[in-house]
Amino acid sequence: MLAKVFSATVYAIEGFFIEVEIDISSGFPTFTIVGLPDTAVKESKERVTAAIRNSGFDFPTKKITVNLAPADFKKEGAGFDLPIALGILAALGKVNLEEIKKYFIVGELALDGSVRAVKGVLPIALKVAREKNNNLIVPHQNVKETVVADINAFPVKNLTEAIKFINKEIEIAPFKMNLEELYEENYFYDVDFSEVKGQQFAKRAIEVAASGGHNILMIGPPGAGKTMLASRIPTILPKLTIEEAIETTKIYSVAGLLNDKFISVRPFRAPHHTISDVALVGGGQIPKPGEISLAHNGVLFLDELPEFDRNVLEVLRQPLEKGYVTVSRAAFKCDFPARIMLVAACNPCPCGYYGHPKKECVCTPYQIQKYISKLSGPLLDRIDIQIEVPPVDVEDITSDLPSETSEEIRKRVEKVRKIQYERYKNKKIFTNSQLTTKLIKEFCPMTDEAKRILKISIEKLNLSARAYDRIIKVARTIADMDNKEIIDSTHISEAVQYRSIDKLVK
């Protein structure tokens, strides 16, 4: 007896269809799964056997062969449990063979027959939406992920329910929910910029960075508020569009980090400095997104930047320039989206108190230089804004004066972003940070005085050609914040202030 069930899995961040073929024949009782299964797929034999028995069905004592096609594609995960179990029962005549072909099916089985959530349902749903047969049976925990696709998604809680539904013994209504409602339901930040006391210079620099999509590095002593500032940057970035929210949610679905939520806010990822380069950029035997892709459309915060391995920092260079990560292996090549705002922080020296007005630094000049030199010049060149964050004054900490809220700052940021969108809408870029050298000449006119100040600054600070472009990009953003089309000397002067840390690594 032969049965065929349609299922799907994920490759990188895209859905990929799999045909589950089950053959039951006479012979010595065996249960074999072929088609390049990984360990989790091979172990589905035990889960499927127990689930079928505990759901009240007799498991056949015959030769069972399960083929996952295409056979040359590596299969992973427990999402094939449900289609394999239903296929076996279909081959035994317990499930309607014609009806089961009308559905794509994914789901993990518990030993008692209940259906558990799986990773990657959102990209699978988007893949199914492009098919004429757009019916998908999914675990009930994953059903909200299907709201982004125009499909009929049927949530099931256990194997018995799935069998009865396919045999038309019960009805299950396809899941329907308004996408805008789901977006608003999950739009919430639990932090706000009004909670930050003092640090007006840092706040201004951060607003400039957010307005132009610029990367930023903060150097300051422990307790200055670097992490506090960084964690609030997503709250002042423009709201995610529905398209961006779907794209970000898709990545989290593949990584198994959704927890029954829709990503409506800008992500904030802060990996520890012991992270490996693969964990940061993604990859593995079967490609998975890394931290930089999980921060897509949001903020990647690297605290204690000099403590990261140098090779980890160097792999950031291409994603920061291109907006995506390319993972190449012998057997595959894939791209992960990685349009991020990089926010980094570090101390000025190993002890953290170099230049502190009240605490004495105990580091030697050699230790300070060795610590700072861990930040490579090429990486610093890709960070548009570099600022010093001094200790907070006691007067600021104890002050009861109200600070600006994130919403107030975000409105200004969105206004500046709108100016950039209108300016670059025919150039396939969205922010000033994405300007190329050619586009800088076209969209960054400067006064003679601004050019003179820029030339003197470059010579005095001995900055690279890439840093030269970065200063102009930041000045373009500052001019946009002033609603000025031509960059003047004040805009250049402020932009140069945000490169002052370059002198520490020369």
Task: List descriptors.
single chain; 506 residues; alpha/beta; Rossmann fold; Helicase, Ruva Protein, domain 3; 5-stranded parallel beta sheet; 4-stranded mixed beta sheet
Explain how this protein is built.
There is one protein chain. By secondary structure, the protein is of the alpha/beta class. It folds into three domains: 2-177, Ribosomal Protein S5, domain 2, CATH 3.30.230.10; 193-406, Rossmann fold; 435-506, Helicase, Ruva Protein, domain 3, CATH 1.10.8. The chain has 21 helices and 18 strands. The strands form six sheets. A five-stranded parallel sheet has the order 11-14-17-10-18. A four-stranded mixed sheet has the order 1-2-4-3. α2 (44-54) packs across α3 and α7 (200-212) runs parallel beside α17. The protein starts with a strand and ends in a 9-residue tail after the last helix. The model has no long low-confidence stretch (mean pLDDT 90).
